[in-house]
Amino acid sequence: MTGPQTETPQAILRSRAEGLAAPLPALLAQAEHLAQSVLPGAHGRRRAGAGDEFWQYRPATASDWGARIDWRRSARSDTHFVRETEWQAAQAVTLWVDQSQAMAFSGHKSRAPKADRARVLALALAVLLLKGGERVGLMPDMPPRAGRAQLDPLAAHLAGDTVTDDYGTPPMSVLPAHSQTVFLSDFLGDPAGVQSAVGRAADRGVRGALVQILDPAEEAFPYQGRSIFTSMGGGMRHETLRAADLRARYRDRLAERKDMLAGLARATGWHMLTHHTDQPAGPALMWLWQQLDARRAM
User: How far is residue 155's CA from residue 177's CA, in Å, rounded to a whole number?
Assistant: First the structure.
């Protein structure tokens, strides 16, 4: 009979690596499926601009100077035509996905945690952007890069362990000037963090979107009677005998937080969306796609 054997360092490393990689195929599959459901409604990001690739002919207007007229095409018609090329400048889009303990909350066993929805939305948006030729990165330490090869590192980072903080704050990363960014979080922590991050980004000409992801229970506050409320990380605890008495004050504070986020977005030229985990993810993804596409057109 032999005694228990100790695992070698190589076996331990392999086991940890396999455990880390296990969620990646499922996360990528969900993101690809979600992106494919939106892709037929997304008309691409092609538009006229500086480039070499022919896009379309259009009738000339009074504001077009003579050098822009395509005389060969115009000779076949009574109308003068301008030859337009496709804008080929790839846009940089940097994502931040809150991985804090608070994002692990789910108010019902039938609903996935907020973090799951944030990861899938972010990765699905990356799929769409990369297919459109854009560069996509992830805060804090993944700079924007183009090509499908960027998807695997993105998925690996998004499927990583959550951080120990109760609530998330966008990192102090310096975003590329005049680029775009998307922050996905519940934004229920100290508002100073997101206010500072959006302000720094706006000062560099960065435009973007705030996606607040909430569980329906966080909107309804359905609790009654004796209740003990604890933060997901265990850092905060509050006990009450009449939870229903807190409902009105809680809802008022949540409304104030939403108003703050909406005002911050308006003041900086950003956009803000509140998305609930019991809603389909497709409309939120389409909204994000449209907001980023509209920004590029400006």
Answer: 25
Between 140 and 160, the more confident residue is 140
pLDDT value at residue 25:
67
Q: Per residue, what are the HEC states of the chain?
A: CCCCCCCCHHHHHHHHHHHHHCHHHHHHHHHHHHHHHHHHHCCCCCCECCCCCEEEEEECCCCCCHHHECHHHHCCCCCCEEEEEECCCCCEEEEEECCCHHHHCCCCCCCCCHHHHHHHHHHHHHHHHHHCCCEEEECCCEEEECCHHHHHHHHHHHCCCCCCCCCCCCCCCCCCCCCEEEEEECCCCCHHHHHHHHHHHHHCCCEEEEEEEECHHHHHCCCCCCEEEECCCCCCEEEECCHHHHHHHHHHHHHHHHHHHHHHHHHHCCEEEEEECCCCHHHHHHHHHHHHHHHHHC
17: which residues sit within 8 A by CB, 6+ positions away?
Answer: none
Task: Please return the burial class of 191, using the count of CB atoms within 10 Å of its CB with bins 0-12, 13-18 and 19+.
Answer: middle
The mean of the pLDDT values for the chain is 82
User: Higher pLDDT residue, 280 or 8?
Assistant: 280
Please give the average per-residue pLDDT across 195-201, as a whole number: 96
How many CA atoms, within 13 angstroms, populate the side-chain half-sphere of residue 50?
A: 2
Residue 103: CB atoms within 10 Å: 27
